[in-house]
Predict the structure.
Amino acid sequence: MENMEKYFQVREKGSTVKTEILAGLTTFMAMAYILMVNAGMFSDLAEMTGTTPDKMYNAVYIATAISAVAGTLLIGLLANLPLAQASGMGLNAFFVYTVCFGFGLTYANALLLVLFDGLLFIALTLTGVRKKIFDAIPASVRMAIPAGIGLFIAFLGLQNAGIVVKSDSTCVTLVSFNVFNGTATWATIMPLLVTIFTLIAIAALSARKIKGAVFWGMLGGTAAYYVLGITVKDFYVGFGEKFNFNPFAAFADFGKLALGKVFTQGFDFSGYLAEHSGGSLVVLLITTALAFCLVDMFDTLGTLFGACARGNMLEKNGEVPNFEKAMLSDAIATVCGSVCGTSTVTTFVEASSGIAEGGRTGLSAMVTAAMFFITMFLSPIASLIPGCATAAVLIFVGVLMMGAVLKIDWNDPSIALPAFLTISFMPFTYNISYGIAFGLISYIFLKLFTGKTKEINVGTWVIGTLFALMFFVTH
């Protein structure tokens, strides 16, 4: 323990081993929901991968846990920071609903793009080119991306819960709660009410500064769902048959359905090429990998600065301690995630809760990683959490991400339009990359028409052109 204390410089950082352990546990509780939410999202790919939702859930649950362990260990050991990493919210939705369902790529093809993202991120970090790409994205678009992703995730949560449904006349509408005209029954309304109750509970717990509010709210929603299930006819019929309570069954599904698929099936684009040209595929691969990389980069940069600032951990020049090592940890973790079978791994803002608890070193990250390792063997319990509870988490994460709009100057049309298009096109088109594309393209044209061409960065021209080309050859 003494050696560990010296390695992480616990005393020098003004902390204690006990404080670091409590901080690590707090961080884990705040972000444990990602295991269930990410697995639930990927279970929608079951039919595409030729398996059942429960098996796909198990496979990605283990993949998420392993990549979280790897990423959190890396940022703790290399950067000595009290942060944690896991599959990023927003990026997982982009993976499943845009890249797979929208573009028509397979699960393994999408993993290959995540692998490219990780390798590119490593190269950009080691060469220092990352900052040039960051500077190439206009501030109006950068600030709007989190809000756009937040709306997209919330929209997914509302759909997954069944609160927002398809409509022939208006495309989408609110589901009927009317039990008097026969369009709804208690059996159909009960899960909807659980989602709403869970969402409000999470917000209330957060407002009261309860640590792990999202996790506890999700558990409360799960309990309410099964208690209310007693009032639904045949709710528990065959209940035990739906679940495999062997904790090692999930590892078998992981080995069969997720691990290494990026190498064994990722390079097979025959399905896409059957309906598209080779040129279309090349542009799609470049722009999609770029979208993954950009969102990952902004997520990580924002989280690193925000979390460290909250803990008064920034250096005198305003930089994050061991910044390059932290970015490298994120990139390596993404590569690990792609090999395991999950979407881009990024630094979680929820780690701020551990920092608020007093965490100041990588020792707290070690504790968080240890907890993720333990939960790998709890997949049968995790699989009991219903979709109505995880949907509430998606909606609430969307709420948290909307705060970015406060930094946008809505009174300046040259800023407001690119920001608005970035935000609105993500949920309206069900595609994160389209939002980034329209934000960049509108920014370029606004600068051209207002005589401010010199303000357009060369990198902005390149990235904007690539995204514009994407529409003409892939859509």
